Amino acid sequence: MKIAVICANGKAGKRIVKEAVSRGLDVTAVVRGENQTVAQKVLKKDLFDLTAADLKGFDVVIDAFGTWTEDTLPQHSTSLKHLCDILSGTNIRLLVVGGAGSLYVNPEHTAVVSDGADFPPQFLPLAKAQGKALSELRQRGDVKWTFISPAGDFRADGERTGKYILGGEELTLNSRGESIISYEDYAIAMIDEATNGDNIQKRISVVRE
Hints:
The longest helix has 14 residues, at about 125-135. The chain has five helices and ten strands; from the N terminus they run E-H-E-E-H-E-H-E-H-E-E-E-E-H-E. The chain has one domain (about 1-209): NAD(P)-binding Rossmann-like Domain (Rossmann fold), CATH 3.40.50. It has helices at about 10-20, 50-55, 75-85, 125-135, 185-195; strands at about 1-5, 25-30, 40-45, 60-65, 95, 145-150, 155, 165, 180, 200-209. An eight-stranded mixed beta sheet has the order 3-2-1-4-5-6-10-8, sandwiched between helices. The mean pLDDT is about 95. The chain is an alpha/beta fold. It holds the Pfam family NAD_binding_10. GO terms for molecular function: oxidoreductase activity, acting on the CH-NH group of donors, NAD or NADP as acceptor.
């Protein structure tokens, strides 16, 4: 299996590359600068400059793009649109590192995590930007996408437990009532989905067991 990880130098990207390489997959790190991952193959190019020819031949493309500043938040939508446009009509699967703010908190799917009174206000613009990108992604019937939301507490320095619960559109809690997952365990779930998953045109979520 050939996998491209876009924005591979990021916190999530590095761990996803490491997990994929550890399983013996053929991994290409797509980076703007020098490769900081364990991938042996590198495509040095900006996400927005990628072409259909660049991604031809891959089985799975993992989008680990992330940005947090106010002026760049719209790029969550524009970057995803660009990737969808160049993958349109192909069999290449697009797996997206998503956010937890857009997960539903009721069975009617009318309220999301970021609507909550206790949602940290500093993360609200990011959650809204990622939620908008997901809404737009849902309109793409021409791309084999999967949007993977982490748990609410997404820990860059969290431990690798090797265990997780696969959820759906709603915020899922573990047996201790927690919504938490480490970047390490998220990477496991991502590569599991890349190799075994069939959640085409669906949003799924993961939480530590």
